[in-house]
Structure formats: C-alpha cells, structure tokens
Write a structure and sequence with these properties.
Shape: globular
CATH topology: Rossmann fold
Largest sheet: 5 strands, parallel
Radius of gyration: 18 Å
Order of helices and strands: HHEHEHHHEHHEHEHEEHEE
Strand content: 15-25%
Number of domains: 1
Bound molecules: zinc ion
Number of strands: 9
Structural class: alpha/beta
Distance between the termini: 56 Å
CATH architecture: 3-Layer(aba) Sandwich
C-alpha cells in the first residue's frame, strides 16, 4: 500500500492555491503551504472597522441583509478584490475555476466551527434534523464555462463533515445581468427576478433552520434575495456564511441579532 501511495503522491502533485509551491506530504490535504496558511490565518484575524472584532468573529452584515431577516452573516475573511495576491482572493478564484475536493474540504472545515457555534447559540443540538445547508447558485453561463458551481461543491463538503443535509433549493433563471456590474438597488431587483425556489424540496426545509452559503458577498443583495425566498418558503431561521465579505462600513452595518 505504501508503494501505491508513494506513486499516487508522485503522479498527482498538489500545489498551494496561493503561491503554487508543491506541497510537502504532510501538507497534502491543505489548500495552502505552511507560509500561505499563516497568511490566511492572519486574514482571519484582521479587525472589522465597525465592531473591531476579527473577521472570523465579526457578525456584522450589510443593511439589506439584516433587513431581509437573516439572523447573522459569518465570514472567514474580509474581501478586497483589488489585492489579488491575498490568500483568500486566490482561494476564491481557484475554486471558481476548478472543481477540487481537497480545497473545497478545506473551506468546509474552516466554516464548520462557525456553523457549530451558531447552532449552539440557537440551542440546536440535533443539527442533522433541524438544519439544512443551501446556497446562492451561480449564473448558468459561469457554471457552463467552468463546469461546476463552487458553492454547490463547498456545501456538499460541509454537509459531509457536519452531517447536515445539503438541499439545492434555490435555482437561478436564465438571463439577468452580472451582479458586480450593477448598483446595490439594481442588484436587489436583478436578484429578485432571477432566483426561484424548487418546490420539490419544500417538504425537506419547512420549519427548519437554513445555513445559507455564498462564496463572496459585497452589498449582500444576492444573499438578501435568497433569504427573502427562504422565508417565504416557510424556513424558520436563516444563518448566512461566506468565505469573504466586503470590508464593513459603519453606517451600513448591523450586528448579530443575538448580540442584542
Ligand atoms: Zn503557498
Ligand atoms: Zn464587524
């Protein structure tokens, strides 16, 4: 078996998603090499300009999202797309381009403690029965171009390690404009026209708590549109999670509903 493993290791070289260095055998299940993992951890500890907590502790969310009825937005890092070399930006771009179990599993593993914490805040013990995981689907064009939806892949890994079922409840119609090219008001109406709920899954989610995932959130309008749909479908509580969220602005943010 050792020979087979050594051969597999040799044939399937794994690289750090940030600096592209070949990973040592003890790092093979990680997304990053040791140096880049330290940089990723540093990103997780960066302070929120609104609540002053670290990114991974910050529960601030854009106004549109808190008004939609989401209980909380948990993030691993803050999003600054112009700083392309940052490990979080490299990770997000990597997952958009490639369907990769190891890197998706890494993200899921990083999200799991936040998910468990939020479940405990709500007093949910039997998470597999009372919660479900779902996501804001990617546009069809982007999905066709890359052959996968990174949020779907990450959510399935998260489901695998948490035992919480993943339900592909939210669907996206053809057409619509690219969110990043629109103002926040235009984004909200664009999303509400685009997203719809697949009725065949309704019985699996009614009265449950949703773990709603999107890889990146800036204005929060995609998540807010999805939250409204989930609420109108009889979902009880909605917790939002992302890899990166735009750096918060004081006037825009509202803290965790449970902090009050
Ligand atoms: Zn690296
Ligand atoms: Zn904050």
């Amino acid at each position: 078996m050792k020979i087979v493993k050594a051969m597999t290791d040799f044939l399937f070289v794994r690289k750090c998603v940030c600096c592209k260095k070949i990973l040592y055998s003890h790092e093979r299940e990680n997304a990053f090499c040791y140096e880049c993992l330290l940089k990723w951890r540093f990103e997780m500890t960066r302070s929120c300009s609104s609540c002053m907590k670290s990114a991974v502790e910050c529960t601030c969310m854009p106004k549109s999202l808190s008004e939609s009825g989401a209980l909380v937005l948990r993030k691993l890092t803050f999003y600054e797309p112009e700083k392309r070399g940052k490990p979080n930006n490299r990770l997000i771009l990597f997952l958009k381009d490639r369907k990769n179990k190891r890197v998706s599993r890494f993200v899921a593993t990083e999200l799991l403690p936040l998910l468990r914490f939020e479940a405990s805040v709500l007093g949910i013990e039997d998470v597999a029965d009372r919660m479900f995981i779902t996501y804001v689907p990617r546009g069809r064009k982007a999905k066709a171009l890359n052959g996968h939806d990174q949020s779907d892949v990450i959510c399935r890994e998260l489901s695998d390690i948490s035992g919480i079922p993943c339900v592909p409840l939210i669907k996206r119609r053809r057409g619509g404009k690219e969110q990043k090219k629109l103002s926040s008001t235009e984004r909200a109406s664009n999303v509400s026209n685009l997203l719809w709920i697949d009725d065949k899954h309704l019985s699996e989610v009614r009265g449950k708590c949703a773990v709603l995932f999107d890889d990146v959130t800036t204005t929060g309008s995609s998540l807010a549109g999805a939250v409204k749909l989930l609420r109108s479908s009889g979902v009880d509580k909605i917790l939002c999670f992302c890899i990166s969220s735009a750096v918060s602005k004081k006037k825009d943010d509202k803290s965790h509903a449970n902090d009050k």
